[in-house]
Structure formats: C-alpha cells, structure tokens
Specification:
Elements (H helix, E strand, L loop, with lengths): L5 H23 L4 H18 L3 H24 L5 H11 L4 H29 L9 H18 L4
Helix pairs in contact: 1-2, 1-6, 2-4, 3-4, 4-6, 5-6
Length: 157
C-alpha cells in the first residue's frame, strides 16, 4: 500500500476526525467548528487524488453538498438538529458521490433513531425531566465511518 498517496491517507484522516466528532458530541453535545472545517477543506484534496474533473464531477459534488446542507439547515431552523451536526453533514457531503451519500443519510437516520431511543429509555429509567438532547453527531460519525470504509478497505486489494 502506498501511504504517500492521498487516496490512501485522506480516508484515514477523515475516519479519525469522524471518531473525534462523535466522541465530542457524545460527551459535550457540541462539535468543534474547526473539525467540520478541516473535513470540508480536505475534500478538494480527495477530489484531486481521485482525479475528478472540474466539470461535471466536482461541480456536481459541490451542488449536491449544497442541497444537502440547505435541507439540514431547515432542520436546524426547526430546532431538530444542532448547528455542528448540520455543518458535519454538509462537510461529509463534499466527500461522497450521491449514491454513497444517500446510503450515509439512511444509515445516519437509522442510527440516530436508535440513539434517540436509547437516550429516551435512559431518561425514562432515571425519571429525568426536561428536553431530550440527542448527540446526533454520534449517528453522523457512525454513518460516515461506514461510508468511508470502502476507500479504506479497497487500498488492500
């Protein structure tokens, strides 16, 4: 395996950042802006390592990421998601083609529902009052790690 090749190295960096985001959101219910910024800033290097053309490949990637980000900004405006979660989804949308991104969003929704149920059950068990704060960054990170496995594992083929 050629570790100097960005196509081999960048998915590992993304995986580490996703783990860090998930852990931070679980512990503090926030995701640092710099982590989302680094994930977004590394996407053009990922495109370059894959040899994507400016038109239509990169233009399509940016357009889809913008649409996904705009959709989740709506969820943020309705109070359904935190700002860090929305920025993380938008940054991840820059990395994956639309088919993989769609799978990521489905897995994110399923894992997010499971995390919500676990937190709701735990709060019910403790008879806790007040609003439920779901660390949705955990679900986003898990879905992102599942999506990033393909470029990571294909390096060994």
């Amino acid at each position: 395996m050629d570790w100097i090749n960005p196509a081999a190295f960048l998915p590992v960096v993304l995986a580490v950042l996703l783990l860090s985001c998930g852990i931070e959101d679980a512990r503090h219910r926030t995701i640092a802006n710099w982590k989302n910024g680094v994930i977004a800033a590394l996407a053009p290097f990922w495109w370059w390592s894959l040899g994507l053309a400016w038109w239509p490949d990169i233009a399509l990637q940016v357009s889809i990421a913008f649409i996904v980000f705009a959709f989740f900004v709506g969820a943020f405006a309705l109070g359904q998601m935190g700002g860090g979660d929305v920025k993380l989804i938008g940054a991840l949308a820059l990395w994956f083609p639309w088919g993989t991104l769609l799978s990521l969003l489905v897995v994110m929704s399923l894992v997010g529902g499971l995390v919500t149920l676990v937190i709701a059950a735990e709060r019910w068990w403790r008879s806790a009052k007040g609003p439920v704060e779901v660390p949705y960054g955990v679900a986003i990170a898990i879905a992102g790690l599942i999506a990033v496995r393909e470029p990571l594992l294909n390096q060994f083929a």
